[in-house]
Amino acid sequence: MGYPSLIDIKFQVKIPIEVSSLSKLIFLGLYKNYFIGSMPTSLGNISSLILLDLSENGMEGSIPKDLGRIRSMKYLQLAFNKLTSTIPSSLCNLSALLDFKWLSNQLSGTIHPDISFPFPHLIQLSIAYNRFTGSTPVSLSNASNLVYIQFQNNNFTGTVPRNLGMLHNAQIIGVSHNQLGGNSTRGDDLSFIPSLVNCTRLKYMMFREHLLRGSFPSTIANLSTQVLGINLGIIQIHGTVPLEITNLANLNIFDTSANRLAGNIPSTIGELHQLQSLHLYGNELSGRIPSSLGSLTLLSSLCFDGNNLLGEISPSLVACLNLLELSLSNNNLNGSIRKEFFVLSSSPLVLDFSGNALTGSLPLEVGNMINLRALYLSNNRLLGSLPNTLAKCVMFQDLRLDGNFFHGEIPIALQTPFEVSSI
């Protein structure tokens, strides 16, 4: 029998139990509908089934243990439902399983301690956005065929397995927003990172918001040149950003925000010409903003707020023509706001220079930024009158100028009730 794929039909009924009478069915795709209620236990009678996809419905209740009788199952996709309870132990019988995609439910309990034993061929293990607890399986690295690992937004505790580098085929390792780490007396929770050098196909490593702590390993610069994204934000890293980070020539995303990194921002970051998002906010970085960052012409988001940076805002940033967000607030930056910053008429949505020691007036050229949604200049030393050209910024939603030395009349355009939430 072919592949019954009923997509986006919005049934808003229960899955009829008669489906289970299709004894020769191989593929059953009912994803992206509004099927409600619990999964029929009789689905376990379709012994020939290879793919079962019930993703993006309104399924509730527990996962039927009867599914463990479908030994031929390779793809079991139940993502984006409201499933609860634990994973039935009977599913360990599905030794042919390749794709285990159950993210965004309300599943709980622990994961099989030896995940590679029942599922030796597993390629995708996606259980993000659930309520799983306990340790990440130490044997995870034995599942050598794994390509996609998504554990983020659960309640996992313990340590990150140090031998993740044995997952030579891994492309995505996403374990953000859990409670891993914090148990090491030596403070070396990041000791797993050097092993990732062996993951030569790795594209994304996401370990944001944990209890992990330790020194920023310089070996991160030795990761595969295929790496596109690194997120180590909101943990407890100290040390410096290695100069050799430039080795990761294809990096699109680099986020080490809200840590305890110190020292200067390496000028070599300006050699990462594929970089689109650079977030180093909430650290203890010092020195000047490197002029080399002007080479990052693909950059759309740059956030350095909440550090100890000093000097002028680097005029080289004007060359970043794709910037949508530039946040440099709460540093020790001084000097004037150059009019050249406001030639980026088609790009920025948010500019945040608040909480510095900027002086001078607000340039007339601010009116060039017709797409600007938010401009934050509060708590500086700016003076003079507000330019009437602010009226050209018709997309304003948030304008904050408090804590400066502006004087004179408020421009008429800002006195009228248009879409400004705060001045």
Largest sheet: 16 strands, parallel
Helix content class: under 10%
Termini, distance in Å? 65 Å
Total count of strands? 32
Strand-pairing-aware structural class: mainly beta
Strand content: 15-25%
Characterize the overall form. elongated
Q: Which segments are poorly predicted (pLDDT under 50) over 5 or more consecutive residues?
A: 418-422
Strands side by side in the biggest sheet: 1-3-5-7-9-11-13-15-17-19-21-23-25-27-29-31
Average pLDDT, rounded to a whole number, is 89
SS element count, helices: 1
Q: Give me the oligomer status.
A: single chain
Rg is 26 Å
Annotation keywords:
423 residues, mainly beta, 16-stranded parallel sheet, 32 strands, elongated, disordered C terminus
